[in-house]
């Protein structure tokens, strides 16, 4: 129980009144000079795409690319007009399923490599084994 200065319970004090509390915190220091600053609005379609007619979004499931900061639930931005160079993250269609992996060209062949040590690389040994569907050019995530 909290007491006022005279030793009387606070709720029993004749001077006791309820005070309103702000619902949000207030600054105790200097206000930020950027508080009133507003930039031009951003069109996310323009920001995320260079080729709108060949760009798609796909929702990620699984954890094979967590090392590249691509996590389950994220949306990846895929551009089908780009060539998949070695080292790029791609959306591939392999063995009847789509998968996101890092495309790597090595002296002994092409590989799709995960960014999680729990998973193995996939060597693309046959031309008809699958195809690179597009190149990942962005990630949209909720925090």
TrEMBL record:
Matching InterPro entries: LexA-like, LexA/Signal_pep-like_sf, LexA_repressor, Peptidase_S24_LexA, Peptidase_S24_S26A/B/C
Record Pfam families: Peptidase_S24
Keyword DNA damage: yes
Residue span(s) of domain Peptidase S24/S26A/S26B/S26C: 24-137
Keyword hit for DNA damage: yes
Entry's transmembrane regions: none
Keywords tagged on the record: Autocatalytic cleavage, DNA damage, DNA repair, Hydrolase, SOS response
Family recorded in the similarity comment: Belongs to the peptidase S24 family.
Protein name per UniProt: Peptidase S24/S26A/S26B/S26C domain-containing protein
Species lineage: Bacteria, Pseudomonadati, Bacteroidota, Cytophagia, Cytophagales
């Amino acid at each position: 129980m909290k007491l006022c200065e005279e030793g009387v319970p606070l709720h029993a004090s004749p001077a006791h009144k309820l005070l309103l509390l702000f619902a949000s915190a207030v600054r105790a220091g200097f206000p930020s000079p950027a508080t009133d600053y507003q930039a031009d609005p951003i069109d996310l379609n323009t920001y995320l795409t260079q080729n709108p007619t060949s760009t798609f979004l796909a929702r990620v499931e699984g954890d094979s690319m967590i090392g590249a900061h691509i996590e389950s639930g994220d949306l990846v931005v895929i551009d089908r007009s780009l060539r998949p160079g070695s080292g790029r993250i791609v959306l591939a269609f392999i063995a009847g399923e789509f998968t996101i992996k890092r495309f790597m060209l090595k002296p002994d062949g092409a590989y799709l490599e995960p960014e999680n040590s729990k998973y193995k690389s996939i060597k693309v040994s046959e031309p008809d084994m699958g195809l690179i569907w597009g190149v990942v050019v962005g990630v949209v995530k909720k925090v």
